[in-house]
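Need a sequence for this fold. Nothing fancy.
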């Protein structure tokens, strides 16, 4: 499988400020933030896309959600944030190492995604 920049970041080969880390994942600020708070939860295990996850990845995927909630709380946005996973080019994914976006600090009810499901 091809390595990505997130592989290098999680292995510490590219210096990066981890705002959270544990044995399974790291959390960093997005380099091109789309909201006042925009951080990425990145598993150390390089699953390319969500659809590539296997049943044995179930506990890792659950862990990533728990970390997202904890980090959102720690960042002071626990009462209002959006969690996004882009899957595949058609889903807007650009780095093919699974990651969760936590977005907060601007109204999330006034954009394209919300309008689509209103
Ligand atoms: P996605 O489009 O879902 O694959 O998201 C990839 C995200 O990674 C984008 O929001 C980028 O701004 C972000 N990104 C790319 N390179 C870096 C980097 N070196 N450090 C932090 N964020 C990055």
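Here you go.
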């Amino acid at each position: 499988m091809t390595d990505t920049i997130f592989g290098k970041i999680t292995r510490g080969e590219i210096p990066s400020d981890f705002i959270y880390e544990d044995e399974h994942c790291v959390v960093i600020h997005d380099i091109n933030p789309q909201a006042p708070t925009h951080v990425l939860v990145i598993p150390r295990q390089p699953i390319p896309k969500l659809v590539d996850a296997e049943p044995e990845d179930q506990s890792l995927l659950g862990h990533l959600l728990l970390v997202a909630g904890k980090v959102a709380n720690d960042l002071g946005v626990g009462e209002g944030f959006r969690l996004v996973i882009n899957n595949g080019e058609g889903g807007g994914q650009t780095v093919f190492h699974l990651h969760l976006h936590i977005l907060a600090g601007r109204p999330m009810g006034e954009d394209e995604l919300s309008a689509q499901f209103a």
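For context: Residues 5-117 form a domain with the HIT family, subunit A fold (CATH 3.30.428.10).
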